Amino acid sequence: VQLQASGGGLVQAGGSLRLSCAASGRTFSRYAMGWFRQTPGKEREFVAAISWSGTYYADSVKGRFTISRDNAKNTVYLQMNSLKPEDTAVYYCAAEASPVVRGSYDYWGQGTLVTVSS
User: Fold this and answer.
1) Do residues 80 and 16 touch, judged by C-beta distance below 8 A?
2) Which of 59, 69, 86, 113 is deepest in the core (most CB within 10 A)?
3) How far is C-alpha 24 from the chain's CA centre?
4) How confident is the chain (118 residues) per 10-residue block, as mean pLDDT?
């Protein structure tokens, strides 16, 4: 599985962005998908995940971010609203070879940079 993330950019605090992650392969619907983010000097952190078992969010983004997927387009999205400067990071999408979220991701895309100005 190859993953291609896009949609990052510069936005003012309070603004919105939608990230997309396009996946190769014909079995996309069988994969749990996740978004992570990382800032310099910090470990990569979980943001959100989606699978047949449901959707999951980090407390820091709950109520502001929404993860969704379009299996016909082999794409997972991360809608980010009410952005804060602390959301600034490189965002990565990941795929887990499991129909449910287990937290052990097998494939990673390249990151897309999100910068939120105050």
Assistant:
1) yes
2) 69
3) 16
4) 96 98 90 96 96 95 98 97 98 94 92 97
What tokens appear for 35 in the block? 């978004």
**Residues in Cβ contact with 90 at an 8 Å cutoff, skipping those fewer than 6 apart:** 8, 37, 38, 39, 111, 112, 113, 114
- Taking residue 65's Cβ as centre, other Cβ atoms within 10 Å add up to 21
CA distance 91 to 20: 10
pLDDT reported for residue 103: 87
Q: List phi, psi (to 5°) of 44.
A: -65, 135
CB 93 within 8 A of CB 33: yes
Q: Count Cβ neighbours within 10 Å for each residue of 87-109 and write b for 16 or more, e otherwise.
A: bbbbbbbbbbebeebeeebebbb
Q: Give the model's pLDDT for residue 16.
A: 98
